[in-house]
Write a structure and sequence with these properties.
alpha/beta, six-stranded parallel barrel, 19% helix
Length: 115
């Protein structure tokens, strides 16, 4: 019984860890488009975006969609991004928000890009 309880507890912890990891938004900006997982375009108006992004100060704050933390090295990133010049080149259109509470998806159909 104790062994079964231990296995169950470990399973719950592993599940919780994987859920938090899936939501992490540690990003690294690459120099070349071919190196990127996602091509990003910054729109001028919130109504045009797929994702409202807020840059957090600490990696531990990246537990919600739209909260990004820029890492120093590519190997630390969940996703590599490249900022494109034209909207038509982008996989994802983002809008930077001023407050953490504003971050989140406007177009959930693009959420698979950050998983």
């Amino acid at each position: 019984m104790k062994r079964l309880l231990s296995i169950f507890t470990i399973g719950i912890i592993a599940c919780a860890f994987s859920i938090n990891s899936a939501n992490a938004q540690k990003v690294y900006t690459v120099k070349y488009e071919s190196q990127a997982d996602i091509k990003v375009y910054i729109v001028k108006y919130e109504s045009q975006c797929d994702l409202k992004v807020y840059h957090v100060n600490y990696e531990s704050q990246t537990n919600k969609k739209g909260k990004w933390f820029n890492v120093k090295y590519e190997s630390q990133a969940d996703k590599t991004i490249y900022y494109v010049k034209y909207e038509s080149q982008a996989d994802l259109k983002i809008y930077y928000v001023d407050y953490e509470s504003q971050a989140g998806w406007k177009n959930n159909s693009k959420a698979h890009l950050l998983q």
